[in-house]
Structures are given as C-alpha cells and as structure tokens.
Amino acid sequence: MTRYALLGGIIQCLFVGLLAASDLKAQEKSIEDIYLSANLRNMKLEDAFVKIVEKTDLNFQYDRKIVSNKKLSQDFTNESLGKVLRSISQETGLSFRRVNETIHVTENPTKRVSVTELVVPSNQLVPIQLASRNTASGMQAPFRSVAVSEMLTNARRLQAITITGRVTGSDSKEGMPGVSVVEKGTANGTTTNTDGNYSLNVTNASSVLVFSFIGYATQEVEVGNRQTVEVVLQSEDRALDEVVVVGYGTQKRANVTGAVATVTIDEKIASRSLANVSSGLAGLVPGMAVTQSTGMAGRNNASLMIRGLGTVNGAGPLIVVDGMPDVDINRINIHDIESVSVLKDATSASVYGSRAANGVILITTKSGKGQERASINYTGSYAVQVPTRAIDFMDDYPRALTLHQRAADVGTLRSNYLFRDGTIDQWMALGMVDPLRYPNTDWWDIIMRNGTMQNHNLSASGGNDKSNFFISIGLMDEKGLQINNDFKRYNARFNFDYKLNKNMNVGVRFQGNWSKFTYFLADGFTEDNNTAGYDMQYAIAGIVPYDPVSGYYGGTMAYNEDPQAYNPYTNYINNLSYQNRQEANANLFWDWSPIKGLTARIDYALNYDNQFRWNANMPNRAYNFQQGAFGARAYVTDNAGVGNFTNTGYKTMLNGRLTYNTSFGKNHTLSALAVYSEEYWYDRYQSSSRNDRLHPSLHEIDAALTDIQGTGGSSSAEGLRSYIGRLNYTAFDRYLLEVNFRADGSSKFLDGSRFGFFPSAALGWRFTEESFISAFTDRFLSSGKLRVSYGSLGNNAGVGRYEQQETLAASNYFLGNSIQKGFVNRKMVNRDLSWETTSVFNLGLDLGFLNNRLTAEIDFYDRLTTGMNRPSEMSIHLTGAYTAPRRNIGNLRNRGVELNLTWRDQIGQVAYGVNLNGSKNVTTLEKWNEFLGKGWVFLNMPYRYVYAWEDMGIAQTWEDVYNATPQGASPGDILRKDVNGDGRIDDNDKIAHSKFQRERPTTFLALNANASWRGFDIVVLVQGATGRKDFWLNNHNNVNFGTQRYASTWGHWENPWSWENRDGAWPRLGGSNNTTESTFWLDDLSYIRVKNVQLGYNVPKTVLRKIGLASVRIFGSSENIATLTKFRGLDPEKDGNRSNVYPINKSYSVGINIGI
C-alpha cells in the first residue's frame, strides 16, 4: 500500500466519523420518548401490534408462528413505547429490536426481558457486507449491515455517565435526605444529602436507577439520554393497605376492628434451623406464649397458648390451614407457608365460635400469582445441635463416698454401710487397669451425642390469567441428642387455582406428609411421667454398657449394689419403638360470582391421619464380668414379644358460603357473609401383641406364639353443625362496624343443650381521617385507630364424645339362691351439660408516626370463661359402680395487656427495623367445685399457683434446731418458719405466692432486630419471660435418696451441708424435711434468651445473570445460643415433668437459598 492510499484511507475514516458524530445529534425519536395509551387487556398479540402501529407509525416484523395464541393482560395509559414493549416481552418471552422504523420480533431462548433499539438515518449507512439468508420463519432478513453510527452508539452506551438530581417527597416539597439511589443489579449506589441532592456515576444510558426510602414507594427510572433525573417519591402506607387473613376471607388492615396479629413467613424465618412451625413463632406475636419442653427429635414441638390459660379443658388454640380446621401445625412444611394470622379476641375469632375460645391461628400456604412466570426455588440447610444445659452425673468413686456420707448423716451404723471397708478404694485402683470388671461409666456421654438436622425443600410456582400453581417437596432429617432417637419427615404440597370463566373459579390445596420416628421412652428419659425404673437417676456408673467381644450388656458387680440397677445402653439399643405416620389434607373449592359484588363458594376438605407403632424388644440380661455369669436382672426377658398399635382417623368438612360486597352513596361500604358448615370426625384404635417370638430378628405378630396374646380396639365419632354470619360496615373510610354470630350444634351434647350461640360486635374509629386532627397528621401522626369489641366464644374440648351416653357394665345379681349374670348402669348423666362460654372484652389502639416508620399497637383485654366442666359435688357421696356426672360450674378470668412497637428506617444504604413486643397476663380462678387443694387451686388466686413453706435457712447447730419451732429437724436440715405462730409446722404455715404462676410465665417480652446493607442481612431475636416460680428439686438432685440404685450428680458431692462443710449450698444428705416444697427450693424461672441470630448474603444480580439464576442467598443461623437466668434447674423454658432431663437444644446451621 502506498503512502497516498494510506493517507486517503485515514481521511475517509475521519470523514465518516464526522458524519456519524453529527448523526448522534440528529437521531430520530427514541422508543423511550414515544408515549401512547392503549387498552390491550385480553387482546391477541397480533391485534396489539396493529394498534401500536396506528399510534406510532412504526412497523413490526415477525413470524406468525411465534405470536399466535398469545394474549396480553394489561392496559397502558400514557406510557413510553419502551415500557410497553418491556411489559410485553416479560409476559410473552419475546425479544424486540427496533431498527429505524421497524421493530423486529424474535423468540428469546433466555425468556428474559429484551428490548433494544438502533436508529440510523439511511444516508449515513456504511455497508460493509450485504447478504441475505433464509430465517427460520422463511423471511428474508439482512444478514449483516453495520453503520458507523451504530458502532459509536454502542460505544456511548458502554461509557460511564454521571447522573445528578434531587429527590422530594409527595407530602412535602422539601428535599429528602438519606434516600438510597442504587444502579439496579449492581452494588453501585449513593444516598441523597441533607437537601435531597445526589450524584452517581452509572454504567451507561440503559442503566436503571432505584430510589427507595422507608415509608415511601420504591421507584425505578431508566437513565436513557438524560443526565439529570429528579424524582418525587410517593408516600406509601403499607401498614394500612396490607391485607389481613381473617375467618372466611380477608380484610384491609385499616378496616380490621378485632385483635389480629400477622406474621409473614419470609426466607429469614424459613431459613432458621427449626423442626416445626410452632417453635418458629416464639417472640413474634404479642400475647401468644410459645413454650418448648424438650429437644427430643420427633417431639420437640412447642406448646401454643394465646392470652393465658383460658380453660382447664383444652387450652390450645384452633389451627386452621387454608380453611381446614384441626390440622397439626407441626406437620406442615414451614417453607410452604405464606402467612400466619393470630385471632385473639372474640370479634376476630367468633366465626369459628365453638372452638375459638382459646384463639385461632390461621395459616395460609403459598400459591402462584397471576402473570407470574414459572420459578423454581431450593433451600437447604445443615445444623448441629447441642444441649443448652445438661445433667452432670457423678463418677462411681465419689458416688460411693456420697452414699457413705448420706449413711453417716442419717446416723447409720458403720457396719451397715453399703460397701465394706476398702471396697471403694479397691474399685478405684483396679478401675484404672481393668475397666471391664471395675467400670466407671459416664452415662451421659454414652447415651447422648451431638444432634444433627438436615432440611431440603424444592418448590416451583407460576401463573397466568387462567391459572396458577405452587408445588413443593421437602425433607427434614433429624437425629436427636439421644442415641437412636431419630425423626425423618417427607412433605409434599400441590396448590392449584383455575379460572373456568370470567366469574367462576375452582382450586385445590393438597398437602401430604410421611414420617418415621424412632425412640426408647416417649419423653426421652421418662414415659408419661412414669420412670418405670428406666430413668437416668438409676444409671449408676459402676456398670459396663456393652462388651463387643462377648456381646453382653453389663449389670451391677460391686458388693451390695442393687442388682436391679439400670443399664441405659441396652434399652436405648434393644428396647426401641418405631412409629410411622402418614397424613393427607385436601381442600377443594368452587366459587361463582353471578352478579357484581356477590360470590358463592363451596369448600370440601378431608384430613386423613394414620399412625402405626410397633416394638419388638431384643432379649438380653445383665452380665457380671467379675463373676463371669449372668446376674438376676433381665433387661428384656427371653419370651419377649411383639406389639402393634394403630391409630387411624379422618375428618371431613363441607361448607357453603355467600359473600356480598357493595358500596352506596359516596362514602359507605357494606360486606356480608353467611356460612353453613358441617364437620365430622372418626377415629379408630387397634392393638395386638404376642409373646415368645420364634426368633429375636422376627418382628411380625405371626412370628410369635399364641399362648400369651392380647388384642384391643375402639372407635369413636363426632359431628358439628354450624351457622355463621358476619356484617362489616364502613362509613367515610373512618367509622367501622363489625357484627358476627355463630351457632354450633355438637353431637357430644344431648337435645336441649346441643346448640350454643356465640355473637360478637366491634366498633372502630380511624380518627386520623378526621379534619380536626389534621394539624397533628401533617406533622407527625400518620395513622390512628381506636378499636373496641365484645363477644362470646365456646368450647367443648373437655367433654368426651360419648360422655353423655348412658353405658352398662357386666355385673352379678343374687336371684334366690343363685348368682345370675346381668348389667348395671355405670354412670349418671347430666342432661344439662353444655358448652363452656368465654366472653371477651377488648380495647385496642393502633398508632402510626412519621409516615408510619414508627407504629404502635396496644390492647387491653378481659376474658371470662364460665361453665367450665368439672366433677360434680355428688361424686364424693357415690360408691360402687356409679360415676357422678360433670357440671358446668367453673369460672376462670384472664386480664392482660399487649404492646407491639415497630420502628423501620433507612440510613444511607442501610435499611433496618426493630420490633419490641410484650404481654402481661393475670389468671384468676373465680369459681370451682368443692375439690379445692391449696398449692394448686384456690378461689381468687391464679390457677396452679405456688403454695409453700417459708424457709429460715439451714440449721448449723443443735442450738438452731432448739430455737426453731419443733419440726423434727437436725443440724444440716432446712428450717421452716412458723408463720401463724401456733407453735407447730403444718399446712397452715404455707404462704401463697399469688403474683407468680407455677406452670407458665405471666409476662413475655421479645426484641426483633434486622438490618440489610449491600446484599448482607442480619436478624437477631431475643426473647424473655418472667412471672413464673417453681421448685427445682427433682429426682436428679434429691438429697434424700434412699436407694443404692441412685445415680448421684456432682451436686451431691459438692453442695450438701456436712459438719466439715458448713457453707454447703444444699442441706445434708437424707432427712425427710429437706425435700418438702419450701422456698429454699423455690426458684424464679425468669430468663432472657438469644433465640436466634442469622447472617445472610445475597449474591448480586450482575453475577447471577451470568449463571442463569434469579437469586442466591447464603446464610448461617443459630438457635438458643445464650440464656441469662437464675434458675438452677435444667432450663427455665421447659414445662411439664421436672424429672424429664431431655434438654432443649441449641443449634448452629448453614444453608443456601437458590431461585431460578
């Protein structure tokens, strides 16, 4: 090439570059600057293209095969053509590319929104290569045509742009400081200054800016050709616009007049290491006590109680899942739940009348949304569990010395000590060289282990204008802290809605689960409060768990040890129970709207539950490794049998309802509901057992001999018929009225007492909508509502299904000189026995401040349950075969207050929220039958309050004993105070602790805090309780143990008083007075617990786009990691049997959420 030719080429390139540069200033209108309005809802895509062409003079080029059978679902009003095309692209999965006057439509394999444009005047096209090819549709299309202006346009799009602007609020013309301004899909962002101004460098003209601030609607603005973007953020009252699930429908939060709390189950709650839903609700709902009593796999669900103990006959709330009552909340996959509504007062719960006396928990599961493109989500986590606190059992050598110390303290002669002189020292010395014959077993280490839990959940959802769906499967695999305590559950769900036509819909909600549960004792270390000799208190250290060489399980070997002492290991290996359970819940519905405002709906639901449990214990005996022979103890006898136990039940529900919504005048709305419902329960129990299996490995009933066998079985049924109504009226968007009624008829009661009627009414006043208060609303008060309600609810849980049926029992009669077989009436029937009735008054106040960044909910309630079913006074006068009937004679009152404060705000790019909630409840027993026992029940006292002697400390000398009221004490014993001064110690000296309850706290507090910043998030939940006292004395710290089988704890070695240890924290070993219920053993069970801490990170969208994922969140979570308490027992949260030492778990987990 000559230098002249080279020079000519350079000049030509510069000339073309100048032409292209001038073209940038003379471009035709962008699709972002072309605005149109078009009604495209339910229009075919081809017809929509025609309408757009008429309004814009642009043409579309497409293959009919890819646009046929596609309809649109949106209307557009004064929207840019670019936004219209993006909406169509999102809905149809098509790609749009504008080149001059033509918009090319192609299929988009990625199914992502794709809209691009290229505007080049024809006189500035520089052809590089012209060719043609046949497209898939048969059209002739340019194969390659490049303009210099296109190259420069692309270069401009890739060049960083500085965008400046100002952000103001719709409720004020002043600039808004602290508004987050972020380039969408990136971590690039800034915040506005004190005047509301900002400056941000963005990637290119296609960048989208996201403006967000707490209390205002988030806005997204595409940069386009602008360098200045000014935004007005619209005030957003999300709290008032929120839709709340209530009985048989929904209501706007602003119009709710009852006491309703709502929990949204987001990814942060679902990501916690939880075995069940009930445990996840702790600390989230004021007024609802969530108490966990054990960490045992398969039984670690929490008990739920709303607003205190409402009745002594079944105090748990009614659980309703997708409209189906009586579903086991702990069998539901928490990942399937959309929201949980807790109905606490009579107005909100009265449509469930007969079983809503203790509150209602409404669970709504997830469903696909209309026009939602199909998405797939996976969540997986793995957790390690350890005890929050554990019993520390003593080694064998100090245990033996402790037994001798007890003998000395109670005055036992040396010759009558359990062990001969030298035996203890010999055992310790030989144990170091021969642990098989002289063992020192740490049973806690043998029986317990670190638990684990795996959770895996996969779901898919989607929808269009005709249907939507949600499908999920889940697996939870938990291995408990105790060996061979395992629980595995599979869940599946299918939710589907289909629109038959414009005013008729059908749908189905199906949930199934299957589980396998393995355990030795039903409560871990106890069985229904009965140790049956298997409790860990009898697990002495001088027993070998198992010798793998001989295959034998050890028994006692030391001289004078009880040969019936306990070897836990053999039971937790050979005496296991296995339980399989299958459950299915299906709900079908059909609704029809024949005219505007009127909807008819029919629901049919079925709940099926089948449980099968079997055990086939392996024969084994205690072996004495010192003597080389089997001992007297048979852990499982040689004729061990097999037992099968089956519980099967189902429930059906059919209801029809009519809903009517209308408006009249300019400011009046009316909503009415009428429901007819029928429910039916059926349950059957069967058992069978045989002894003498033909071989230990055989587990079937037919594999055992028929010499010793047993069978059993029973069935029962129950029906409920209900008539329900509700009326809601709103005037001027601020005066609210709600009236409810429910009439229930139960098969448990006889005619004349069968039906109960439970009405309620509520008033609400949104006073911030009044003009006279505008001076406050303009400044700081955003919303305010006063609520008041009163109504009644019912309960029949304390009545048996056949309690009102007269029954006969076989008996013998003397007729003449002979005995004749016959029948006798077994019980008397009270034909007037009927419903318990709970009347509830509720006064509530809802407030919002600073554009609802700060919200407060305050409720006061007074709940009185009358007519509690209790044994009749007649029962003390009856003997023989007769059983006295029960009567409606008990009254129980609960008063309380609840507070819920929430603050949410944003500082720069840090969004955060804090919630503080608490409740105080006082229970008073106002009426009972004649069976009143101090220490448990007494009128005008809390139900099951603390009633105890007041201690005066430990007697250090005989002088202390002589100076005290005579009570059979010795030095080292607890001295009790003669409160009434009558010179003797008896029950009249006990003191009632009326401000404390024995079984549950009176006050609950919780602090929830969360924050997020650039993809990182943190959640902290701290929960606490107070107002409960109980005795921490139990079978494991008993100072008066009287058997050589007793397995002492280290507390028995370190703490007891003795002549050598006058500062002992415990009284002396032995002495009957030392185990009485006195304030010496009374502990305050108040506690503060760090319930959950969770850290998460959301992978940026820019990274995810490259790998085809919609979202990825990596998280770590911990449960029950720290507890502050003065309680000396195992765990202050535990309720129930104090001798059950299965601890509550603390856990540490990691996991991932993936969205596609």
UniProtKB/TrEMBL annotation:
Subcellular location: Cell outer membrane
UniProt-listed Gene3D superfamilies: 3.55.50.30, Carboxypeptidase-like, regulatory domain, TonB-dependent receptor, beta-barrel domain, TonB-dependent receptor, plug domain
Domain of life of the organism encoding this protein: Bacteria
Keyword Phosphoprotein: no
Domain called TonB-dependent receptor plug: residue spans: 255-360
Keywords (A to Z) from UniProt: Cell outer membrane, Membrane, Transmembrane, Transmembrane beta strand, Transport
Annotated Gene Ontology cellular component terms: cell outer membrane
Membrane topology per record: Multi-pass membrane protein
InterPro entries, per database record: Beta-barrel_TonB_sf, CarboxyPept-like_regulatory, Plug_dom, Plug_dom_sf, TonB-dep_OMP_SusC/RagA, TonB-dep_OMP_SusC/RagA_CS, TonB-dep_rcpt-like
First-listed, main subcellular location of the protein, grouped into a coarse class: membrane
UniProt keyword Transport present: yes
Pfam families reported for this sequence: CarbopepD_reg_2, Plug
Entry-linked NCBIfam families: OMP_RagA_SusC, SusC_RagA_signa
Family of this protein: Belongs to the TonB-dependent receptor family.
Protein name as annotated: TonB-linked SusC/RagA family outer membrane protein
Organism: Rhabdobacter roseus
